[in-house]
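Input.
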Amino acid sequence: MRVIKFKAWNDIDKMAIKWDTLQASPVLFMNILKGKVKHHQLMQFTGLQDSEGVDIYEGDLISLHDNQRGFTKVVFRNAYVGGWLLVRNNNACSLGARRQEDLKVVGNIHQNPELLEALK
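Output.
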């Protein structure tokens, strides 16, 4: 069974709103989804977890244990089978093709903007 859930980044409070809270507030969730709530960005769950059992969301920064490439950013692209990609320096590979034990969430694009410089 495919699990679909989200969390929302609140730019004002600098914190994530977890899925349980969004589910308990369907009006808030729908307004964020429709772009009616300013300063909030949805991040979709990929359906995968890292080596420590942490859910992986769109916008997460992932460390790859099996090589020296540093870390990559999780993005979604409709044009690709499965949609979820790991991107670094305009190079992409399928997130689903990676082994769970090779992945570790090290942050996200919202809480760790300084790490984005390493991706360029």
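The first strand starts at residue 6 and ends at 10.
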